[in-house]
Design brief:
The structure holds 2 protein chains of 2 kinds.
Chain A (H helix, E strand, L loop, with lengths): L1 H31 L6 H16 L10 H24 L8 H22 L17 E4 L2 E4 H23 L1 H11 L1 H6 L4 H23 L8 H9 L1 H7 L5 H21 L12 H16 L22 H19 L4 H26 L7 H18 L6 H18 L7 H22 L15 H22 L4 H20 L4 E4 L10 E4 L5 E3 L14 H23 L2 H11 L1 H6 L4 H27 L1 E3 L6 H15 L3 H28 L4 H23 L6 H12 L5 H19 L5 H30 L14 H10 L7 H8 L1
Antiparallel strand pairs in A: 1-2, 3-4, 5-6
Helix pairs in contact in A: 1-5, 1-8, 1-10, 1-11, 2-3, 2-4, 2-8, 2-9, 3-8, 4-24, 4-26, 5-6, 6-8, 8-9, 10-11, 10-12, 11-12, 12-19, 13-20, 14-20, 14-23, 14-24, 14-25, 15-18, 15-19, 15-23, 16-17, 16-18, 17-18, 18-23, 20-23, 21-23, 24-25, 24-26, 25-26, 27-29, 28-29
Chain B lengths: L3 E10 L2 E11 L4 E5 L6 H9 L6 E6 L2 E2 L5 H6 L2 E3 L12 H16 L5 H17 L15 H13 L5 E5 L7 H16 L3 E5 L3 H7 L2 E6 L2 E6 L1 H6 L1 H8 L4
Parallel strand pairs in B: 3-8, 3-9, 6-7, 7-8
Antiparallel strand pairs in B: 1-2, 1-4, 4-5, 9-10
Classes of the chains: A mainly alpha, B alpha/beta.
Chain lengths: 821, 247
């Protein structure tokens, strides 16, 4: 009984905090139509500020709790909310769903990066509960702390306040009306801008209350853990379908109680070691289940105007040409780059390969997946377990597994290509035999005791792709009916689930697998002490272990090949169907397309690409940890940067990957070097360095996220101009200059930094010059007719144009003059 | 027995009754019109027939087979094609690709075969349909770039690639000029000559009166009249509700 009361109270307290946080989320969503992904991060950030004021030095000593509280809630939080609305979110009205998702994600990453920047030192920051840890009262034998009491009472008061605000006040009703029709509110004399500001201020305040109340329960303040805790509230908000506040509050309590009772039942995770981390994953499991069980909106079309983005598709021929140029270019670079930089570049291209899975899934098919790196992580772990780390002989068993997976994979993917019955089974058989062949040929060391193997085989990569694909299918099946934001949240929940249940898994799995391990049990150490050492590949007779150049080129070739395959796919029947599904599911249904098959196949394919890329990427890094590089937040950052770069393009994946994996680090290095070289400006360069490292990706997202086509389109438009006849000279100068720099570098005339300083500006300047030239020409041509002769003199050209415009027979100005004489 | 049989269909949106016990039948091989003021429930009825919206009550049968609870894509496969009042084209694709994707989808569930002969057949059919709808010159344009009147033809062409037995046309003439509408009427007659049944929602009375063999009039979710075009034009209820009389 005592335990029941205790765990109920704990559950109610946590649940109350979830309720408060989710109510804030609902308030901003109902008034702005934007799902504030940054909500959790705002709660985390304000909790840090509160800690700073209350428990650390503050400004002029530790502040008393009420004053610190009032300051954070009524000064800091509203300022954050208002600033966000004015500067970032207001511009999102009328943009598409992906943009509405990406910008708040960028804001979230900005808060996380900013907090890491401000509170850099690794001291432990321990916020105390209100009235201390000892202040409590009792019911029977059970104790209830004052902090818990305060939490529950606050939640109740806030619930009543919100209810009153939204139903009984004029501004509250305006806030709700703004969502339905902003213009109409304006026409009726409402103030939509003010209402939106107020809702963001209130939303940020609720996040702050939740952050401050929950932080003492965590022990020491931790940026990601605190953010994720508030993220748990998202499930409660979905419980209320993002609009119903009473249901949202109830959802929060249900989640809190579920977590608490699970802790009771499982002895805080000790009873079932496999499920020890489930307590932190329960909220996202609930989120996933609620999303699936919610009645879905009907298939609904969208008018043309809604799609601002339009991606041009390259021809297969040009994609092959570009692939070849890319491989040659990178190969040339390997001759002059130091190992360290080759590694950075390889990292970027590794992420870019994973990014290709998003191009297929989100860019081509319009399905949002916020867990790209979870599939990459699964791929890396699979490659490790089945190729490197299982400590058993493989051979036949390995082949059996590959055959089974290949058949499953083929069965899921091929029907979408129009294969049925005999043809389907034929294709699946051919594919399976092909995989078996590959696995047998490339698994040169099979049967020799894999524990001692020092390199990853090609078959390991294949198995990585197949397992990730299969898991992608398993995740996709329940999520098939979801679209847009809801699909994003479901995949987000999956990413957190993988973070908690797979990356933090310390158990050893012993299985008796037929054909493997000579009848003995096979042991898998799922995530060995928080790190897996993944060796470099060793196939084609090349040693990738010490040769970073070879590794970089391998990644480059892999990227190019998958990219070309994707272009072929996009230009096929399958690709057209994906585009059609993205553009109008309603029309697809009325054309007789079974979209479930199509979605399942594209999810499986994309997850397989991510798994393959993940295994290769991990093998380049040589190791993966539980907190890098495949966590949920890193996945969000990569997704965001790929969208910003142009998720509909192959080059978008490349730019996104290189931005994320290479560019910000190199920029950081650059300012670091400057700080070393000019020590008198040390502080300035350090600040710039920190800015790039902590806030670079987030700022890129916020700054560039509004362009629905991404930066890839702009860059390529620029380079397309260079191909025109009039720019041949410029193009040749550019190519010649680049080649010269390359030769200078290879002969050691200039050092690496100088090369970079010469090369990057040349790369960027050429298209800019070309564009400027083109604009000049255009403005000359576009002179408005009615102004001719007023501020510009007549030229032969203008007279000719005028004649053409007015349908007059051509007459030379001279004739005109002659006649007037 | 009529080809499409709509029986006692009721659809509610919350407290609002969009369709109230609506029954009508569409006869094989002719053009049946459905007119009525905005908000009368015409598009809702089309959504119910094509399966995008489930009716709360009532039954629909196509050629004697009940399709009330059939998934939209299965209805399409049993011969129901449609166009949309608010265009539902695929803006990532060109005009030709919009039509091609439809042919390919059909090919997948009928033959599941992509041999050279089949591909040639598809190409031929696309060419013919482009010609019929006068879109040949626009074939390589992206659909986002073409005027609404032409876009409506793309939707029709796309639907025709499915070899539908019944086409639901939702305000195909809006966005078309008089000449285009007249041409559109000719296309519709060509289609009925080929045996396709047409169910037409339209505000353009010149089109309705010139092509329809039978007309239903819907107002506030109920049928207020039905009959030939001549009968409809003199029906008092229709004039009051929709057409407007002489003052």
């Amino acid at each position: 009984m005592t335990e029941l009361v205790t765990f109920t109270v704990v559950g109610l307290a946590i649940g109350s905090i979830y309720s408060i946080a989710s109510a804030g989320l609902v308030v901003t969503y109902t008034t702005s139509g934007i799902f504030n992904f940054a909500h959790g991060a705002i709660g985390m950030f304000t909790a840090f500020i509160y800690w700073q004021l209350r428990w650390d030095a503050g400004w002029g000593g530790q502040w008393p709790a009420p004053i610190a509280m009032l300051f954070v809630l009524f000064v800091v939080a509203p300022i954050i909310g208002i600033f966000l609305q004015l500067v970032v979110m207001r511009g999102l009205e009328g943009t598409n769903e992906t943009t509405k998702l990406v910008i708040p994600i960028a804001v979230m990453l900005a808060f996380i990066g900013g907090t890491n920047w401000i509170w850099q030192d690794l001291e432990s920051r321990i916020p105390e509960p209100f009235f201390g840890r000892e202040s409590k009262w009792s019911i029977g034998d059970a104790y209830i702390t004052t902090h818990q009491t305060i939490v529950v009472v606050t939640a109740l008061l806030l619930a009543l306040f919100l209810k009153f605000l939204l139903t009984n006040t004029r501004i509250g009703i305006t806030m709700r009306a703004v969502v339905d029709n902003r213009e109409l509110v304006q026409l009726n004399g409402g103030k939509p801008d003010f209402a939106a500001l107020l809702s963001w201020a209130i939303g940020a305040m609720m996040a702050a209350v939740a952050g401050i109340l929950i932080s003492p329960l965590l022990g020491s303040l931790n940026v990601l853990a605190l953010t994720l805790l508030v993220v748990n509230a998202y499930a409660a908000a979905i419980f209320g379908r993002l609009k119903n506040l009473p249901l949202t509050f109830m959802g929060g309590l249900v989640i809190g109680l579920a977590v608490s009772y699970w802790n009771w039942l499982s002895g805080t995770g000790r009873k079932w070691p496999w499920l020890s981390e489930l307590r932190s994953a329960i909220p996202v499991v609930i989120l996933f289940v609620i999303l699936i069980l919610l009645p879905q909106e009907r298939l609904r079309g969208s008018s043309l105007a809604k799609y601002r983005e339009s991606f041009k598709v390259p021809t297969i021929k040009s994609s092959i040409t570009w692939g070849a140029i890319f491989i040659i270019f990178i190969s040339a670079l390997t001759l002059i780059l130091e190992n360290k930089w080759e590694f950075s570049l390889a990292k970027g291209i590794g992420f870019a390969i994973i990014g290709l899975s998003m191009v297929l899934l989100t860019g081509y098919a319009g399905e949002i997946n916020l867990a790209p790196l979870a599939f990459a992580g699964i791929g890396a772990i699979s490659a490790y377990q089945f190729d490197v780390g299982s400590g058993v002989e493989t051979g036949a068993g390995f082949a059996t597994l590959a055959v089974f997976l290949a058949a499953f994979f083929g069965y899921l993917v091929f029907p979408a290509f129009g294969l049925a019955r005999a043809r389907l089974w034929g294709a699946v058989s051919v594919f399976t035999i092909g995989v078996l062949g590959l696995v047998t040929i490339f698994d040169g060391t099979s049967g020799t005791g894999i524990a001692s193997r020092e390199s990853m085989s090609f078959s390991g990569l294949i198995v990585a792709a197949l397992i990730a694909g299969a898991i992608g299918a398993v995740v996709a099946v329940p999520a098939l009916r979801l679209r847009g934001l809801y699909l994003g949240l479901a995949t987000f929940a999956f990413a957190i689930f993988v973070d908690k249940m797979v990356y933090k898994q310390r158990q050893t799995l012993s299985l008796d697998i037929p054909f493997i391990g000579d009848g003995k049990d096979v042991t898998f150490n799922v995530f060995n002490n928080g790190a897996l050492n993944i060796p470099r590949p060793g196939f084609f007779g090349i040693d990738f272990r010490k040769n970073q150049s070879a590794m970089l080129i391998l990644l480059t070739i892999t990227f190019s090949l998958i990219a070309i395959l994707l272009v072929i796919l996009r230009r096929s029947t399958y690709g057209r169907q994906l585009s059609a599904m993205k553009d109008s599911p309603a029309a697809c249904a009325t054309l007789g397309l079974n979209m479930l098959k199509l979605k399942l196949s594209v999810f499986t394919l994309a997850a397989a690409i991510a798994g393959f890329g993940g295994a290769l990427h991990a093998s380049n890094l040589r190791a993966i940890q539980e907190d890098a590089p495949f966590t949920v937040f890193e996945g969000l950052a990569l997704f965001m940067l790929t969208v910003v770069s142009g998720i509909g393009y192959i080059s978008g994946a490349l730019i996104g990957g290189i931005l994320y994996g290479t560019a910000f680090l190199v920029m950081g290095d650059f300012w670091d070097k400057l700080a070393n070289d000019w020590s008198s400006f040390d502080w300035l360069f350090t600040v710039i360095h920190d800015f790039f490292i902590f806030l670079g990706p987030a700022m890129a997202g916020i700054g560039l996220g509004r362009n629905p086509n991404g930066i890839a389109a702009q860059i390529f438009d620029g380079y397309r101009i260079l191909k025109e006849e009039s720019n041949r000279t410029l193009l040749s100068i550019g190519v010649a200059a680049t080649t010269c720099f390359w030769i200078f570098r290879i002969t050691d005339v200039i050092d690496g930094w100088t090369f970079l300083l010469l090369f990057v500006p040349t790369l960027l300047l050429c298209p800019l010059i070309a564009e400027a030239k083109k604009k000049d020409l255009e403005t000359e041509k576009m002179h408005p007719l009615e102004l001719i002769g007023i501020d510009h003199s007549y030229t032969d050209q203008i007279v000719e144009d005028l004649n053409k415009e007015l349908n007059l027979p051509f007459s030379h100005p001279k004739d005109f003059e002659d006649r007037s004489h | 027995m009529s080809y499409l049989d709509i029986k006692d269909i009721t659809v509610r949106f919350g407290g609002h009754i969009a369709l109230n016990n609506v029954s009508m039948s569409v006869e094989r091989g002719i053009i049946t019109g459905l007119i009525g003021p905005n908000g009368a429930g015409k598009t809702t009825l089309f959504n119910v027939v094509s399966g995008l919206h489930r009716a709360d009550e009532g039954a629909i049968s196509l050629d004697g087979e009940r399709i009330t609870n059939m998934a939209p894509y299965k209805r399409a496969r049993s011969g129901v094609g449609r166009t949309f009042q608010r265009l539902e084209l695929f803006p990532s694709l060109t005009v030709e690709e919009n039509i091609r994707v439809s042919a390919e989808i059909r090919n997948q569930w009928t033959r599941g075969n992509t041999s050279t002969i089949v591909r040639k057949l598809i190409d031929q059919k696309i060419e013919d349909t482009l010609e019929l709808t006068g879109l040949t010159e626009l074939a390589d344009h992206h659909v986002a770039e073409i005027p609404t009147g032409k876009a409506r033809l793309v939707e029709l062409a796309r639907s025709l690639m499915q070899d539908p037995k019944l086409i639901l046309l939702d305000e195909p003439a809006s966005g078309q000029n008089d000449i285009e509408t007249a041409e559109f009427g000719n296309i519709l007659r060509t289609l009925t000559n080929e045996g396709i049944t047409i169910f037409l929602v339209e505000h353009d009375m010149s089109l309705v009166m010139s092509v329809c063999d039978h007309v239903y009039v819907l107002d506030f979710g109920s049928i207020i009249a039905s009959g030939s075009t001549d009968e409809i034009q003199i029906d008092k209820r229709v004039i009051d509700a929709y057409l407007g009389g002489d003052l």
